Amino acid sequence: MIDPRAARTADPTAPAAAPAAGRPALEIAALHKSFGATTVLSGIDLAVAPSELVFVLGPSGSGKSTMLRCCNRLEEPDSGTILLKGTPVTGAGVNLNQIRQRIGMVFQAFNLYPHLTALKNVTLALRKVRGLSRAEAEARAVEALTQVGLADKAGNHPAALSGGQQQRVAIARALALEPEVMLFDEPTSALDPELVGDVLAVMRDMKSAGMTMLVVSHEMKFAQEAADRVIFMDGGSIVEQGPPERIFGAPEHERTRAFLSRVTGG
Amino acid sequence: MTPLERFLDTFFNAAVLAKYAPAILQGVWVTVELSVLIVLSGIALGGLLACVRAYRVRLLSFGIVIFADIFRALPPLVLILIVYFGLPNAGIFLSSFVVLYAILTLILAAFAEEILWAGITSVAKGQWEAARSTGLGFTQALLWVVLPQAVRLAIPPLTNRAIAITKMTALGTVIGVPDILNQATTAQSFSGNASPLMLAAVAYVLLFMPFVVLSRWLESRFAWRKV
Amino acid sequence: MEKFAEQFLNLEIMAAAWPTVVQGLWVTLLICLVVIPMGMAGGLLAALASLSPRRAVRWPMIAFVDFFRAIPPLVLLIFVYAGLPFAGLDISPFTAVAVAFFLNNSAYYGEIFRAGLLSVGTGQAEAARSTGLTAGQSLAHVVLPQAVRNVLPDLISNTVEVVKLTSLASVVSLGEMLHQADLARSVTYNASPIVLAAGIYLAILWPCVRLISRFERRMAT
Ligand SMILES: Nc1ncnc2c1ncn2[C@@H]1O[C@H](COP(=O)(O)OP(=O)(O)O)[C@@H](O)[C@H]1O
Ligand SMILES: [Mg+2]
């Protein structure tokens, strides 16, 4: 099995004096982002502890995806800092391709490569970025596919997989690189209801294996069971956060209450 | 002679056919050689240009677009005549074979660039993002993720275009490339009989028909992509 | 460099060749005016025949289309122009061009119309027929407009190819633009007249080529 907590070789760019324990896996500070005249993120501060699952809630357009995409710089932040285990993600001179291997991302639309088999979807980055031999890459890909329960589908192209299976392959593609943090952007929103469970089960397994996860989703039940902390975003900032029991049971802010009653009650 | 006999004597004269078949066969090799060279280098060059354009360096892209536009807009024969008759007076001597090869290669490259570029831009943005999110660099994402998908989309139109342009090797006749048509027209004027032309037409059809049928098959196979 | 300018961009020679080249331009436009409508009409018929439910109509038509897609237009033109007189059919260069282009263009336009007709769902014709339109009316008023819209970029693109192909008529000494320019070239021993003709082709066709690229990009997204 791939242990997501597997020790990495010391990162030369990390400040040597910083203590490894007690530091957040992912630290976002004063993150701002606008698209033209629209401000999408206005000062996000968030620290995700190692092995923590942070669940992000919020109405459509509140900036959840943008926040996630700033974390691996698919979107370029206007200002603010992001640190991965103390290593800067933002700023000039960052080796983006190296840092991105340490941050896995799962997309709403899966974004599997349609011309490659499930196995090759997983091995591509292992071979081209990590420089593993074909045999090494395939061994590791099979492990990752086993972890998501799809070792038997290794030879299938995405078109021959169900939506849920495609999303699990996409998770395996990220997992195989042994990331330190995983970002999920509405991983089950594009799935038929009966296929959602399999994907959530895989995410639960990852959580219990100790993966650090930042999850944007509307699966409230999953949040209640698996999240360590729930964050409610609106209008580009974090309105409220806390353990799931409190956010769902006794939300403090009117906006949170309104949102929750709309998605659960309505 | 009955009309039928006359027709057969004009277009299928056995003696004339036998006499000039070897010359026309020589022409077949010239045509095949040119076609293979043009297809290989034209598509390679077009692919390279489409890839360069993906980097979106303003000046480079502009140059590529101008190149592709000019070579798509001008009749091939115009380009061939300008180069073949113009260059010697400017002190540059190229054989007619080289002129024909170079011009048709550039024309195919221009079309291939446009077709592949359309393919590259039609690959979903999420494909780039997924690739980049796993640490692949821009060039790696282009080569391993985006280009293979673009090529798939491009194969039917590229096949059609490659056929149309290799057929233009017949234009070499005008500047004296000893291709099929050239051999046939020479033979026709020596023999005073149209049989060599008929043989040339048959040779072209035999040569290109398999590719036309292939392109029809490719189109029906890839047709689902349009809906 | 000077040698190049002298050989390719000699303004004096261009000015002298201008009337001759423009004379050719009119012939080029006249050829276009004849062969483009003819090719489109032939292509539409070929497309309809190649979609016929009757195999005896469909297969010969597909073979016809593929045959003329396989044969180079110049070969066809020379065959018609130089070959048919041997069979006692004396024809003018213009007729030869018209016949060869009709066969070649019908095949290419035919493939495009065929794809266009196939892209319109059968429900459209059925709906039209259900309101009492005849087969011809349903084709003309319902199916064909949609088919044409769906393949408009290909139609424009092929028409550009046809305009470019008219330059082949120079080979059979029809006095179209390239022929006239080449005439001036052979008198002056200078390529500038052909460059002038190239400039005129560009002025006509560049906007079309731009338009096609625009279309392709729109389809892609
Ligand atoms: N590339 C972009 N260009 C312009 N506006 C964008 C872009 N991406 C997102 N936005 C805008 O930013 C806002 C937040 O989007 P997003 O982060 O996707 O929200 P969420 O994921 O919470 O639904 C929306 O108003 C959206 O329209
Ligand atoms: Mg979103």
From TrEMBL, chain A:
Residues 26-260 form the ABC transporter domain. It comes from the Bacteria. It is a peripheral membrane protein. GO terms for cellular component: plasma membrane. Keywords: Amino-acid transport, ATP-binding, Cell membrane, Membrane, Nucleotide-binding, Transport. Belongs to the ABC transporter superfamily. This is ATP-binding cassette domain-containing protein. It comes from Halovulum marinum. The lineage of its organism: Bacteria, Pseudomonadati, Pseudomonadota, Alphaproteobacteria, Rhodobacterales.
Automatic annotation (TrEMBL), chain B:
It comes from Halovulum marinum. Coiled coil: none annotated. One of its GO terms (biological process) is amino acid transport. Gene3D superfamilies: MetI-like. It comes from the Bacteria. The lineage of its organism: Bacteria, Pseudomonadati, Pseudomonadota, Alphaproteobacteria, Rhodobacterales. Pfam families: BPD_transp_1. Belongs to the binding-protein-dependent transport system permease family. HisMQ subfamily. Residues 28-215 form the ABC transmembrane type-1 domain. GO terms for cellular component: ATP-binding cassette (ABC) transporter complex. InterPro entries: AA_ABC_transptr_permease_3TM (IPR010065), ArtM/GltK/GlnP/TcyL/YhdX-like (IPR043429), MetI-like (IPR000515), MetI-like_sf (IPR035906). Keywords: Amino-acid transport, Cell membrane, Membrane, Transmembrane, Transmembrane helix, Transport. The chain crosses the membrane at residues 28-52, 59-85, 91-112, 197-218. It is found in: Cell inner membrane; Cell membrane. This is ABC transporter permease subunit.
UniProtKB/TrEMBL annotation, chain C:
Gene3D superfamilies: MetI-like. It is a multi-pass membrane protein. Residues 25-213 form the ABC transmembrane type-1 domain. The keyword Plastid does not apply. It is found in: Cell inner membrane; Cell membrane. Belongs to the binding-protein-dependent transport system permease family. HisMQ subfamily. This is ABC transporter permease subunit. It comes from Halovulum marinum.
